[in-house]
């Protein structure tokens, strides 16, 4: 059964506040094998002009997972996650995220369509601080293999 | 890290290629750090049953290596403003000590105002392009 097209245009409620911690940023940097001191050494980050250690460019996906994961798991959407592969990903940044700030993510389903045997779902996730400062937007295209079959 | 100055580059400037290894351990760590536990990234039996050649890397792991390439090239004073990729082919990660290699290279496509540069990256694994339309805009010091 295909992904439910009634979800096109739906914006899910903002995620629970996510606190960006130094420990998580260092763990993520370790997992991608990146020794960059800006992600784990506060003094180096401050020297480079940031308030605290910053997040690697792809880290917003972690915050997105927490919220879009919830949206993608909505039973009404009918997405078979085991068959999902990532089609495209794009980030637009106002500035790097840094440790100590608390953000929320708001997911909008921009599009759902069938391409051949696959179903393709496009989402935009807007990440903002609790003060309403927009920091980053993540645009994702997910492909459910065989979803349209 | 070597800082790159806006004045010192021009359209066509090459970003030297770098190889980044990815092993099964990398994927297990990335599952934990990212929260993406999709079985195709750690369970060979299920990956194969779903029609994949073997366990495959998270697309976001590959993109992270491309991001690492960007930030290492640009240096600590630079800021990434835009970064996008298309996942054209999976990085297949065999169950051995060597794993797979992700090779990233790039080129300055265009100098923009405000110390910004548009970059195009080429990302391959085993000779296959694994990311296409890999582009970024970076603001240099």
Task: Summarize the structure in words.
- The complex is a heterodimer of chains A (149) and B (141).
- By secondary structure, chain A is an alpha+beta fold.
- Chain A has a domain at 5-20 and 57-144: Hotdog Thioesterase (Thiol Ester Dehydrase, Chain A), CATH 3.10.129.10.
- Helix content of chain A is 19%, strand content 33%.
- Chain A has helices spanning 22-31, 42-47, 60-72; strands at residues 18-19, 84-93, 102-115, 118-129, 134-144.
- In chain A, strands 1-3-4-5-2 form a 5-stranded antiparallel sheet.
- In chain A, a hairpin with a 4-residue loop joins strand 4 and strand 5 (134-144).
- Chain A is elongated.
- The termini of chain A are close together.
- Chain B has 141 residues and is of the alpha+beta class.
- Chain B has a domain at 13-21 and 59-139: Thiol Ester Dehydrase, Chain A (Roll).
- Chain B is built from 3 helices and 5 strands, in the order βαααββββ.
- Chain B has a 5-stranded antiparallel sheet with strand order 1-3-4-5-2.
- The longest helix of chain B has 16 residues, at 59-74.
- The model of chain B has no long low-confidence stretch (mean pLDDT 95).
- The interface between A and B is large, with 40 and 42 residues.
Characteristics of this structure?
heterodimer; A: 149 residues; alpha+beta; 5-stranded antiparallel beta sheet; 19% helix; 33% strand; B: 141 residues; Thiol Ester Dehydrase, Chain A; 5 strands; 23% helix; elongated
Task: Present the secondary structure layout.
The complex is a heterodimer of chains A (149) and B (141).
Chain A (H helix, E strand, L loop, with lengths): L17 E2 L2 H10 L10 H6 L12 H13 L11 E10 L8 E14 L2 E12 L4 E11 L5
Antiparallel strand pairs in A: 1-3, 2-5, 3-4, 4-5
Chain B lengths: L13 E9 L1 H11 L9 H6 L9 H16 L4 E9 L12 E12 L4 E10 L2 E12 L2
């Amino acid at each position: 059964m295909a992904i439910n097209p009634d979800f096109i245009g739906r914006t899910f409620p903002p995620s629970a506040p996510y606190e960006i911690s130094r420990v998580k940023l260092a763990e993520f940097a370790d997992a991608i094998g990146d020794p960059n001191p800006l992600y784990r050494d506060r003094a180096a980050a401050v020297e480079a002009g940031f308030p605290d250690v910053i997040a690697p460019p792809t880290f917003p996906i972690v915050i997105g997972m927490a919220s879009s994961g919830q949206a993608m798991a909505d039973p009404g959407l009918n997405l078979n996650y085991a068959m999902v592969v990532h089609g495209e990903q794009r980030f637009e940044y106002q500035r790097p995220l840094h440790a100590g700030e608390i953000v929320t993510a708001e997911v909008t389903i921009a599009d759902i369509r069938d391409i051949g045997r696959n179903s393709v779902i496009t989402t935009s996730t807007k990440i903002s601080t609790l003060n309403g400062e927009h920091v980053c937007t993540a645009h994702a295209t997910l492909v459910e293999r065989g979803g349209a079959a | 890290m070597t800082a790159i100055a806006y004045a010192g580059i021009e359209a066509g400037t090459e970003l030297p290629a770098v190889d980044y290894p990815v092993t099964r351990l990398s994927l297990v760590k990335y599952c934990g750090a990212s929260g993406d536990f999709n079985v195709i990234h750690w369970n060979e039996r299920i990956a194969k049953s779903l029609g994949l050649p073997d366990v495959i890397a998270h697309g976001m792991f590959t993109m992270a290596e491309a991001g690492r390439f960007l930030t290492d090239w640009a240096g600590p004073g630079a800021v990434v403003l835009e970064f996008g990729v298309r996942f054209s082919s999976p990085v297949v990660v065999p169950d051995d000590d060597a794993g797979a290699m992700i090779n990233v290279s790039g080129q300055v496509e265009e100098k923009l105002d405000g110390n910004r540069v548009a970059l195009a990256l080429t990302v391959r694994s085993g000779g296959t392009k694994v990311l296409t339309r890999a582009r970024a805009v970076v603001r240099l010091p």
